[in-house]
Amino acid sequence: MSARLTGGGRLRDGEPAAPGDREAPPRPAGPKPAAGGEQPAPGPAPSGRGRRLLVSAAFGAASAVLGLLLWIALAAGGVDDFPGPVPVARRAGTLLADGTLLEDAWSSLRRVLTGFALGTALAVPVGFVLGWYPVVRRLVEPWLQFFRMVPPLAIIPLAIVLMGIDEKPKIFVIFLAAFLTSVVSTFQGVVAVDVTLVNAARVLGARDRQVFLGVVVPASTPFILVGMRVGLGASWATVVAAELIAAQGGLGFRMQQAQLYNDLTTIFVQLIAIGTIGLAMDRLLLLAERRLTQWQERR
Description:
Number of helices: 10
Radius of gyration: 32 Å
Distance between the termini: 54 Å
Largest sheet: 2 strands, antiparallel
Mean pLDDT: 80
CATH architecture of the domain at 107-252: Orthogonal Bundle
Shape: flat
Structural class: mainly alpha
CATH superfamily of the domain at 107-252: MetI-like
Low-confidence stretches: 1-23
Oligomer: single chain
C-alpha cells in the first residue's frame, strides 16, 4: 500500500494515493554528510596503470635490496679479495671525479649504438624479404645460420687483419652480432604470421602490398623488437670482447688494464657500468615494444 501525504505533511498508511498527492522522494544512497553539512569529497583512486607502476617499482626496489644484501654476504663470507659495495663505490667516485669512467662509458656506448643501429637497420628489411619470399629464404638462411654459429670473438682477429686496429673492426663485429640476431627474429616473425589473417585480407580484396603493410608488419613487430633486445645484449658482449683485444679506451679496455694489476674494485665498477647502461637501453626498447604493440594481450 502506498503512503498518503496529509495536509500537515504527514503520511497516512493504508489509503490509496490521490491524484494530487505528493509522494516522498526516495533518499539517495551514499555516505552520510559530515557534521558541517558538507559531504566529503572522495580521494582520487589510483588507476590500473598507476597501480602497475607502483607494484613494478616496489619489486624493482626489493630486487635491488636483495642483490645488495647478497653482495655484502659474499664479501663478508671470506671469498678471497672479493670487494664489497663500499670499496667499489669509493673507486667509482674516484673514476667519476677524474672523468675516466664517463670517457670509457661513452667510448663503449658509441661503438654499441653505431654497430647496433646499422645491424638492426639492415636486418629488418632483409628479414622481411626472407620471410615473404620462400625461395630467397631457402637460399640464404643456411648461410645466416652458419655465420650465427661462429662467435664474434673468433671474427675479431680476422676483422683486425682486414680493417686495421681503429674503430672499424670493433663496429663491424658489433654490427654482425646485432644483424644476425635481429634478421633471424624478423623473418621468423614473418613466417609465424597467422595464415587465416592473410587469407581474410585477400578475401576482402587487399593486394599484396596492403596485406604486407596491414597484416604482416604489425603481426611481426613483437618478434622484431624481441630480436632487437637480444641483439642489444649480443652487442654489449661483443664490444667488451673487442675492447679486450684491441682498443685504447672503453669499459672492456679498462677491465683488461685492471686485470693486469689485480684491481678488482675497478673491474667491478666497469661491470656495474656495463650492466646499468645495458639495462637502461633494454628498458627503453621494452617501452617501445609496449607502445607499438598495444593491441597485443599481456598478462
